C-alpha cells in the first residue's frame, strides 16, 4: 500500500467517525423538512385561530414548509395543549398557546391538569390583545356603570358568555363581578363563534371576548361595546373606554397568544422558530394586520420583539399572577 493509499484511508475513516456527530446538527439546521402541525386548542373563528392562521401563513413564507392548523378545542384549551405536551419533541407539532391553557388553567384545575408547565417549551410570544366587555343591543345599557346598575336592580337575571370555562374571558367576567359586587350567570361556550351568535341574538345578554374575534361585530353595530380591559384605550376602537375609566380599575386583563413546543425539542429548532416569530411580529404588514384587529406587539425584548427565553420568563410570571386571581375569585373547575 502506498503512502497515498494510507492517506486516503485516513481521510475516509475520519469522515465516517465524524458523520454521526454531525448529522443531528445538520438535520436541525435543515428544519423544517416537511409540513409542521400547529395545534390550536380552541374552535375556528376565535382569536386563537385567527392569530394562528396569520402566523402559519408567515412561517410558511419564511421557512419554506406549510404550517397546517389543527383545531383541538375543549377544557379551556387543555385538550389541544395536552396533545402537544405529549407529542414527539421533533419540532413538527407546535402549540398556539394562550393565556388560558398556558397560565390560568394551572390554578383553575389545580392538581388535575393533564400536563405541567415544564412539559412545554417556550418558542415566542406573537401578540397581546385587550378583552372587550359588550352587551346585546336589546339590553338598555350604554356604559359599564349602567350595566352594573342594571345587574344590581335585576339580580340573577343576566347571563354572561365566554368562549369557555377557565379562559381569560371567563376570568375577566369573574373579576367584574367581584369588583362591582354583582351576580351574573356564566355561560361557557366551545369557542367565540357560538358565544357571539347567542349574544347577537339576545339569548345571552353580556359577553366577554378577545378584541380580534369580536371587533367586526362591534364596528358593525351588531353588539355594543362597554369597555376594554387594558390600561389604555386601543387605537382599534378609540371611542371605547377602559375598565379603569369606567370606574373599575381592578378589572384589567390582557390576553396573549404565542407558540410552545413539546419539552425536549432541540434548542436549534426552538431558536430558529423563535427567530422567525420575532421577525414576523416586526414585519410592518403583519404589525398593521394585528393592530387592525386590536392586537398589540409582544414587547418582551427592548426592541419590541420576542425570544424563547423572554417568553419562558413571561409565562412563569403569568402563572403566578393568575394563580393569585383564581384564588381570590374562588373559582375551581372539575
Automatic annotation (TrEMBL):
<dbReference type="InterPro" id="IPR042100">
    <property type="entry name" value="Bug_dom1"/>
</dbReference>
<dbReference type="InterPro" id="IPR005064">
    <property type="entry name" value="BUG"/>
</dbReference>
<protein>
    <submittedName>
        <fullName>Tripartite-type tricarboxylate transporter receptor subunit TctC</fullName>
    </submittedName>
</protein>
<dbReference type="Pfam" id="PF03401">
    <property type="entry name" value="TctC"/>
</dbReference>
<feature type="signal peptide">
    <location>
        <begin position="1"/>
        <end position="27"/>
    </location>
</feature>
<comment type="similarity">
    <text>Belongs to the UPF0065 (bug) family.</text>
</comment>
<keyword id="KW-0675">Receptor</keyword>
<keyword id="KW-0732">Signal</keyword>
